[in-house]
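User: quick one, fold this
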Amino acid sequence: GRNSFGNPAVLGTNDSNTLTLRTNSQSAATIAVGGATTFQNNNNSTGAFQVNNSAGTQLFNVDTTVTNLLTNPSVEQAIAGNWALKGSATVIQDATQKYNGINSLKVITTAVASDGAQQACTFSATPYNLTVYAKLDAASNAMATFQLGYKIGAGADTSCLTAQTLSTTGWTRFSCTFTPAAGAGSVYFKQTDAVIHTYYLDA
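Assistant:
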């Protein structure tokens, strides 16, 4: 970078190369050609990325010490081996709607209660917070039967939030807390009525 008096300071390259910021010989931030930017801590931290106002009050924080039980939660990678249909639904990775990143999980149900999406996981006997952003497709039937929950093994579905309404005009955040028994199981997002719906899930 360089600066001349009376001119803005410029940091970067004039060719088709990325710009990498390093500390202690470790990359901390990378700006790719075109502007896509990645921040990566060398160690997980409760304050990995923060935005403060002029008074020093924290407005936004990213905690990288939090472990996500789910694989590919924001559906940015291929869904094979992680996200799966529930019941008779169809689930696909979709780039036309997204809350975060560039993709979401599109769920197309049949007229069968309990259709939806799920992901297998292994639980500990400890509290979990299950959070999802959901949006109803503009051409879908209205939906006020959205449910999220979990199940252990081949047992019954256990709801932690039910009878929720999805909107076609924006993403809605849904969140609940549950404490399962330890063991293999799954988390799910489903309908409880026998009506065809199309909706999107993201994290």
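User: anything notable?
Assistant: The CA atoms of residues 51 and 91 lie 36 Å apart.
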